[in-house]
Design a protein that fits this description.
binds flavin mononucleotide, alpha/beta, Metallo-beta-lactamase, Chain A, seven-stranded mixed β-sheet, Rossmann fold, seven-stranded antiparallel β-sheet
């Protein structure tokens, strides 16, 4: 079998609806692929993504290593650590590095859980062999199959050919094809099996599929009461503490991780939490990334419920439907979902490969807008996307906002076909269709995030346009809104510098909050802020505008990607590095102390470090509002 043939066979199984090599031969796509061996190499790159280093200035000097610690009886964690951003995916956006946690249980029998991705293959295998003789390894438990992990798995099985892989049934289907050329023993977990390693280490398994990881399997060890949670309860940060002694400081990282990976699949997260509840005696969560969860186990479980619940109480919901063979379209969808979620709009992802039509129909009936993403395979969208599109066209009202995205290799017909069908049917698009060649880059992912935000803002705008009619029907609500609108505030532009980008947000919800130290509270709309001022210690400038100088118009709405409102106005740079609007009345250099979620706004508490009046005779611009809905 040629390499491209075996690759295509793996595709057919790994991505269940992908065409078989034979079918592709008939459709002529095989010829196109054979002609373009270089394209195949590019595709292979998407299967096993290389580590792309973002920016030399972001690189930490400390080399990758493997930290080893005992976390329970006969149980060791091997944390493959990197201090720099591992990949471009949005979940690494906080740029604090990460750990890929693998676990070794050495009782009468030995099991290894979740060997890391190929960025760590060499250092991991070297370290692992210091702790166990691979020739006696009995089991490799795989929580989910990720193309990135296959390299390590392959090398591991070459050293431990006797080991049996334990995984979920969907994972077994993928692995059987990937390892079709080798003699690999794979045992899918079918029900309530117990894997006895001896000395009381009886492993139970729980199948917790989500759109992002449809094959996810978690493991519980009764002897140590450790629940190995894989993608749940993790955080992307790299540090010395193995346990969560400092759990309060982990809050933001954990919440960010949840927002990036789980906020768009909360129905499945809640189902997983229900299943985890059957392991009520668990005393430690051992996640795939970040510190072990010991001291904050109840708290984090509660947080996951709360954060999931919050998604369902939001007033607007976007359905995000996609399929993805190698994860590129999924990664784009994840960035769009993050852009939506950070505006306070709820987003629910569905991987159409694993959803039945009834589930898609119900989601489309309940959503306020929808976005559909597809790779192009053999000149088309995969069958499941075509089915989903059919459901949309027959179910979603034409007033619903729509969006289209997808990864492609050379022609990208799928995205064009979907866009055309939606436009022909009368749907409006909430962002310009996103066509990304192969794997998205850091830059394209930022555009995708911005597109998600733009989509959610349009959705909110639509709702506000409809709102006056609803208010008219409810006179009291209307009168209350008008009364609240009588609260006035000075008009300000909050400015900040993020990497090379200058950001400006208009707000009149500013108030002095403390005298010593001089402190302010400022409310900024969630849909205006993206990741702005999410972390304690971040600097910004509050520019207090003056009457008669219409600076506000430059900041009335968030700029489109690539647009810079600052080019049209005079600025200087404050000592904290943020822009000062030269024509403002005064400015204050501030440092963020705290950020609190308040409905559709973030409330910031900041300490004023320096301040300067720029026009001693000017008068503060005040925002007089007519309704509570205006800032
Ligand atoms: C079997 C196969 C057929 C493909 N056919 C096309 C095609 O007709 N046109 C195109 O633009 N890209 C084609 N591609 C490239 C994929 O669209 C590209 O790899 C994309 O990144 C896959 O997205 P995903 O990771 O979300 O599955 C093909 C890839 C494979 C493996």
């Amino acid at each position: 079998m040629t390499s491209s043939n075996s690759f295509l066979k793996a595709l057919s199984s790994f991505f269940r609806f992908a065409p078989s090599p034979e079918a592709l031969q008939e459709t002529g796509v095989q010829t196109a692929i054979a002609e373009a061996e270089t394209e195949a190499a590019a595709i292979a790159e998407t299967v096993v993504p290389p580590i792309v280093e973002p920016d030399a200035s972001l690189l930490a000097t400390r080399p990758r290593d493997v930290q080893v610690a005992q976390i329970g009886d006969a149980t060791t964690v091997l944390r493959s650590r990197t201090w720099d951003r591992l990949k471009f995916e949005v979940e690494y956006g906080r740029q604090k590095g990460t750990t890929a946690n693998a676990y070794l249980i050495q009782a009468d029998k030995t099991a290894l859980l979740d060997p890391p991705g190929e960025s760590f293959t060499d250092i991991f295998l070297t370290e692992l062999q210091q702790h166990t003789d691979l020739a006696t390894l009995d089991y490799v438990i795989v929580g989910h199959v990720n193309p990135n992990r296959i390299t390590t798995l392959r090398r591991l099985l070459a050293l431990a050919p006797q080991a049996t892989i334990i995984c979920s049934r969907p994972a077994a289907i993928a692995l059987r094809t990937i390892f079709a050329d080798g003699d690999v023993q794979i045992k899918p977990i079918r029900g309530d099996e117990v894997l006895a390693l001896g000395q009381g280490h009886e492993l139970r398994f729980v199948f917790v599929p989500t759109p992002r990881w449809p094959d996810a399997l978690c493991t519980y060890d009764a002897a140590t009461r450790i629940l190995f949670t894989d993608k749940f309860f993790g955080a992307h940060l790299c540090d010395e503490p193995v346990l969560d002694d400092n759990w309060k400081q982990l809050d933001e990282d954990r919440h960010y991780y949840f927002d990036c990976l789980h906020a768009a699949q909360t129905r499945q997260v809640q189902a997983a939490l229900d299943k985890f509840a059957t392991f009520a005696k668990a005393k430690l969560y051992a996640p795939g990334h970040g510190p072990m969860v010991r001291y904050s186990l109840s708290r984090l479980t509660y947080d996951y419920r709360e954060w999931s619940q919050q998604q369902h109480t939001k007033d607007l919901t976007v359905a995000l439907l996609y399929t993805s063979a190698y994860g590129n379209t999924a990664t784009i969808g994840q960035a769009i979902a993050k852009g939506i979620a950070q505006t306070g709009v709820s987003v629910e992802s569905v991987n159409c490969e694993f959803a039945d039509p009834a589930e898609i129909t119900s989601l489309i009936e309940q959503c306020d807008g929808f976005i559909i993403g597809s790779p192009t395979l053999g000149g088309h969208a995969p069958t499941q996307i075509q089915t989903a599109l059919g459901i949309i066209l027959s179910t979603a009202p034409r007033t619903h906002l729509a969006g289209v995205f997808g990864s492609y290799g050379w022609s990208g017909e799928a995205v064009d076909q979907i866009e055309e069908k939606l436009k022909d049917s009368g749907y409006r698009l909430g962002f310009e269709t996103l066509r990304i060649k192969f794997k998205p880059t850091d830059e394209t992912l930022q555009q995708c995030e911005a597109a998600g935000t733009e989509f959610a803002q349009s959705l909110r705008k639509d709702k506000r346009i409809r709102a006056p009619y609803q208010n008219a029907a409810d006179g009291q609500t209307d009168r209350t809104g008008q009364a609240v609108g009588r609260v006035t505030g000075s008009l300000c532009v909050l400015t900040a510098q993020q990497d090379d980008t200058r950001l400006g947000v208009l707000t009149s919800w500013v108030s002095q909050a403390s005298f010593n130290p001089p402190g302010l509270t400022i409310a900024i709309a969630k849909d205006q802020t993206a990741d702005l001022l999410a972390h304690t210690g971040e600097p910004f400038v509050l520019n207090i505008l003056k009457q008669g100088k219409n600076l506000r118009r430059y900041f009335l709405k968030p700029p489109s990607p690539g647009e810079d409102p600052f080019v049209a106005i005079a600025t200087e740079t404050a000592t904290n590095g943020c822009p000062v609007l030269t024509d403002a009345l005064a400015y204050l250099e501030c440092t963020l102390q705290n950020r609190m979620e308040c409905g559709d706004h973030w409330l910031l508490y900041a300490v004023v470090e320096h301040g300067k009046v720029l026009d001693a005779t000017g008068v503060t611009a005040v925002n007089h509002r007519k309704s509570a809905l205006q800032q």
